[in-house]
Design brief:
10-stranded mixed beta sheet; 3 helices; about 25% strand; mainly beta
Length: about 200
């Protein structure tokens, strides 16, 4: 029987990202979220229509999304984290640390603790998770659909989403050195007709 990891139904499923925690490492709420963690567009770096990943369809929310990647942000100061820096550009010292738990600006009719506190918790310390958004297209170069398979290494893309193409990783754009690219995790369950979530074992 296939592992069915449906996203559910209703407006929330169409306009929000989702993280399902199967086995959790730790939740980190230390540090302050950068200002653009609440204002950045999605996608943030590569916005050519043909390259925009289909998992973002229906998501118009700004700011970091649950299941996107938390980066160190020395450009904002000591102890800050957020998505890839804005405006577009690649900055030395920005390193992926984990996956954001929630959308930074929250949802209508809910409390918005991130906005109130200036914090955006992320999880790391390994663990197994399923995510509803990832890169579906090549980002750097001509748009081509990506194919995922169990065992793929996953990286932090230029847009702060998971990808299996290291050439699209933020760190590769900084240094073009594979030894300098962080492995975010190992793909366990590939998204397909029976599995709406990408499931991975974290390595950060």
């Amino acid at each position: 029987m296939p592992l069915v990891l449906g996203q559910g139904s209703g407006d929330f499923a169409e306009t929000s990202s989702r993280v399902q925690l199967f086995h959790l490492g730790y939740r980190n709420s230390l540090g302050i979220a950068t200002a653009d963690a609440f204002t950045a567009a999605n996608p943030s770096q590569v916005t050519t229509l043909a390259n925009v990943s289909t998992t973002l369809a229906g998501i118009t929310k700004v700011g970091v999304l649950g299941a996107t990647i938390a980066f160190t942000r020395p450009d904002a100061g000591n102890g800050f984290h957020g998505g890839p820096s804005q405006p577009a550009g690649y900055v030395v010292g920005q390193r992926p640390m984990g996956l954001f738990l929630n959308d930074a600006i929250g949802n209508p009719f809910e409390n918005t603790p991130g906005v109130a506190s200036g914090r955006a918790p992320y999880f790391a310390g390994q663990g197994a998770v399923g995510v509803s958004i990832w890169e579906t297209q090549i980002q750097i170069g001509a748009s081509t659909a990506l194919v995922y398979a169990p065992g793929d290494l996953l990286y932090a893309s230029v847009n702060g989403m998971l990808t299996n193409r290291h050439q699209d990783s933020y760190e590769w754009q900084v240094s073009a050195d594979l030894d300098n690219v962080t492995i975010m995790g190992v793909l366990k369950v590939a998204p397909d007709a029976n599995n709406s979530l990408m499931v991975l074992d974290l390595r950060v």
